Amino acid sequence: MKKSYFRPEIEAMKGYVPGEQPKLANLVKLNTNENPYPPSPRVREVLASFDYVQLHRYPDPLADELRDAIAARNGVKRENVIAGNGSDDILTMTFRAFTAPDRPIACLNPSYSLYPVLGRMQGAPVIRIDLDEARDFALPDNLLEQAEGANLLIITRPNAPTGNSFPLETMREVCRKFDGVVFFDEAYADFADDNCMELAKEFDNVLVSRTFSKSFALAGLRLGYAVGAAALIDGLFKLKDSYNLNRFTQTLGLAAYLDEPYLHECCARVRVERERLTGELRELGFRVVPSSTNFLFASPPDQDGESYFRKLRSEAVIVRYFPGEVTGKYVRITIGTPEEMHRLLEVTRRFYPAGA
Ligand SMILES: Cc1ncc(COP(=O)(O)O)c(C=O)c1O
After folding, report:
1. pLDDT at position 356, please?
2. Of 60, 97, 188, 306, whose CB count within 10 A is highest?
3. 51 CA to middle of ligand 1, Å?
4. Whose CA is nearest to atom 13 of ligand 1?
């Protein structure tokens, strides 16, 4: 047999499969948890006045202006913040820093499917901690016992694809007791009632990551960041690509970040639609997990997620389906505009008339 040039763990692994980005027009695209609204108008203004000549120079490798703004809003210092090319970049640095064949990673199941992929790239054992479907995907009581031996514990809060959150006090206890780094992936925290930022200040083993892809409506820009103890952030800087944030990202990201009222307005709108859709789907007999995010994890009356996914698709409404014994009963629906939600419900009612 021909020799493989790849490391055995790379040869053996499957790559991460991102959600589809269909090119067709007139789709109702509810599959990758983007914001249905445009980015802040400040982004357009700054983009319009962007001096293209600046592009002949490298960008600030440390993204200091952006990090200062993030630090100021969160009551920390610049040394407590690192920015990345999306929060995926932050995750990549984190896995490279803290996982190895003798340093396992623990994460929730179901959760963001990139974590096991990054773990395998490192050759690190991946401990998957099952959430309890019967209790709306709550954490198991023996979470810490199951995570024992891991060097990195990722808690996605609120979780994806399930949408639910976990009690803050339990999170504090986990940070206190876990003998390793606790990483809170807070990609969706702006849509939730609370977050773990205080824990990043309170404990020296905690990182909290955020993204501009969801609440800031900037998935196309690629920007994320993490906050944590200076020693942890300093370690991540060693692993960072030299110029991981281009000039557009730094400049436009800052403009969006400084427009806080617009952020709150977008999130409030999404939350209103989320609650409305939850109620309407439940009336049609769907099981809907209480959501603290900009999406719903919903199971149709016949619990056949795949068939609901296909039916919606046949009507040009694209949601996300995750095959699997538990996840296969559900689809994940991104909250869109009122018009998009109207269309989703119209199609759904045709397939599942209430009480049928
Ligand atoms: C839980 C979670 N973390 C991280 C990300 C990645 O976000 P980014 O676009 O910032 O790389 C996603 C994207 O869907 C996500 O769902």
Report:
1. 58
2. 188
3. 30
4. 187
Atom of ligand 1 nearest to the CA of 88: 11
Q: Hey, whose CA ends up nearest to atom 3 of ligand 1?
A: 187
Residues 141 and 200 in one domain: yes
Ligand 1 mutation pick, 32, 87, 131, 218, max ligand atoms within 8 A of CB:
87
pTM of the complete model beyond 0.90: yes
Give residue 336's domain range. 8-39+261-351
User: Over the chain, what HEC string results?
Assistant: CCCCCCCHHHHHCCCCCCCCCCCCCCCEECCCCCCCCCCCHHHHHHHHCCCHHHHHCCCCCCCHHHHHHHHHHHCCCHHHEEEECCHHHHHHHHHHHHCECCECEEEEECCCCHHHHHHHHCCCCEEEEECEHHHCCECCCCHHHHHCCCCEEEEECCCCCCCCCCCHHHHHHHHHHCCCEEEEECCCHHHCCCCCHHHHHHCCCEEEEEECCCCCCCCCCCCEEEEECHHHHHHHHHHCCCCCCCHHHHHHHHHHHHCHHHHHHHHHHHHHHHHHHHHHHHHCCCEECCCCCCEEEEECCCCCHHHHHHHHHHCCEECECCCCCCHHHCEEEECCCHHHHHHHHHHHHHHCCCCC
pLDDT band at 21 (very low <50, low <70, confident <90, very high): confident
- Least confident range from 3-7, 127-131, 252-256: namely 3-7
Q: Output the pLDDT for position 322.
A: 96
Q: How many domains does the chain have?
A: 2
Q: What is the CATH number of the domain that holds 267?
A: 3.90.1150.10
